[in-house]
C-alpha cells in the first residue's frame, strides 16, 4: 500500500467516549501533521512531528492528544470531545521538515461526528 | 495575521467553458501550492510555484504566481466534469497558510 492511510474513515462518538485516529505513511517522509477541516474555515494546523518529535502544537485543547511512535505512524487520541469538534481530521506527511513548503501528501481523512 | 483570500467561493459552469479562480494575499510567500479536494477525500497537490511570474501548466490547468509572490491564479481550459472539486491554495513562508477554497462544479 502506498501514500497516506487514515483509519477509521468515519467515526461517531459520544462526548464521554475515548477513541483514537490512526495515520500511516509509506512514503519515507520525515514529517507528519494533523489538520482539522471544518466547513467554511481554512485548514487548521493542529500538530507537527518531525522525526517523531513534536515540533508544533497550535494551541490545541488537551482533549486532543497526539502520539508519534515512529516516523511512519501518527495517532490522535480523543477524549471528552465537544460537538464543535465535529470535522474532517486530515493527516499529512512531507519530505523533510519545512512545514510542508514542498507540498503535503494528505490522507483521505477521518470524518468525526461528536454527539 | 496572514490571510489567503480565494475567489470566487463557488463556481458552477457548463462543461467545455473556461474559468479562472484566484488566490490573493497582502503577504509575500516563498512558494504557493494548489490542491484539489474531491468529496470524501483529502486534498491532492497539483502544483507548487516558487518564482514570481512563474507559469506552470498541467494539461488543461494553467497556474500563475504573481510577480510580487502575493497572489496566484488557476485557469482551466475546456472544463470537464472530472474537474469538479474544492480548489485550495496554500502559501508557504515560515509557516503554511491555507485559503478557504473555491468550490467548482462542472455541469455535464
Report on this structure:
The complex is a heterodimer of chains A (115) and B (108). Chain A is an all-beta fold. Helix content of chain A is 0%, strand content 56%. Chain A has strands at residues 4-7, 10-13, 18-25, 31-37, 44-50, 53-57, 64-70, 73-79, 87-94, 105-106, 110-114. In chain A, the strands form two sheets. In chain A, strands 2, 4, 5, 6, 9, 10 and 11 form a seven-stranded mixed beta sheet that branches. Chain A has a four-stranded antiparallel beta sheet with strand order 1-3-8-7, with no helix packed on it. Chain A is globular, with a radius of gyration of 13 Å. Chain B has 108 residues and is mainly β. Helix content of chain B is 0%, strand content 55%. In chain B, the strands form two sheets. In chain B, strands 2, 4, 5, 9, 10 and 11 form a six-stranded mixed beta sheet that branches. Chain B has a five-stranded antiparallel beta sheet with strand order 1-3-8-7-6, with no helix packed on it. In chain B, strand 4 (31-37) and strand 5 form a beta hairpin. The mean pLDDT of chain B is 94. The A-B interface holds A 4, 6, 40-43, 45, 90, 92, 98-109, 111 and B 4, 30-31, 33, 35, 40-45, 48, 88, 90, 92, 94-101.
Amino acid at each position: 500500500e502506498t501514500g497516506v492511510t487514515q483509519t477509521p474513515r468515519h467515526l461517531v462518538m459520544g462526548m464521554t467516549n475515548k477513541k483514537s485516529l490512526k495515520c500511516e505513511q509509506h512514503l519515507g517522509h520525515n514529517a507528519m501533521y494533523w489538520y482539522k477541516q471544518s466547513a467554511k474555515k481554512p485548514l487548521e494546523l493542529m500538530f507537527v512531528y518531525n522525526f517523531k518529535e513534536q515540533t508544533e502544537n497550535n494551541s490545541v485543547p488537551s482533549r486532543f492528544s497526539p502520539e508519534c511512535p515512529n516516523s511512519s505512524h501518527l495517532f490522535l487520541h480523543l477524549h471528552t470531545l465537544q460537538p464543535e469538534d465535529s470535522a474532517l481530521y486530515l493527516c499529512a506527511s512531507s519530505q523533510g521538515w519545512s512545514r510542508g513548503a514542498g507540498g503535503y501528501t494528505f490522507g483521505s481523512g477521518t470524518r468525526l461526528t461528536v454527539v | 495575521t496572514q490571510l489567503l483570500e480565494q475567489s470566487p467561493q463557488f463556481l458552477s459552469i457548463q462543461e467545455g467553458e473556461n474559468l479562472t479562480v484566484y488566490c490573493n494575499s497582502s503577504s509575500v510567500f516563498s512558494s504557493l501550492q494548489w490542491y484539489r479536494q474531491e468529496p470524501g477525500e483529502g486534498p491532492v497537490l497539483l502544483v507548487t510555484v516558487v518564482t514570481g511570474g512563474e507559469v506552470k501548466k498541467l494539461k488543461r490547468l494553467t497556474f500563475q504566481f504573481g510577480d510580487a509572490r502575493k497572489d496566484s491564479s488557476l485557469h482551466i481550459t475546456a472544463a470537464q466534469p472530472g474537474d469538479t472539486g474544492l480548489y485550495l491554495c496554500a502559501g508557504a513562508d515560515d509557516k503554511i497558510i491555507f485559503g478557504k477554497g473555491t468550490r467548482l462544479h462542472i455541469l455535464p
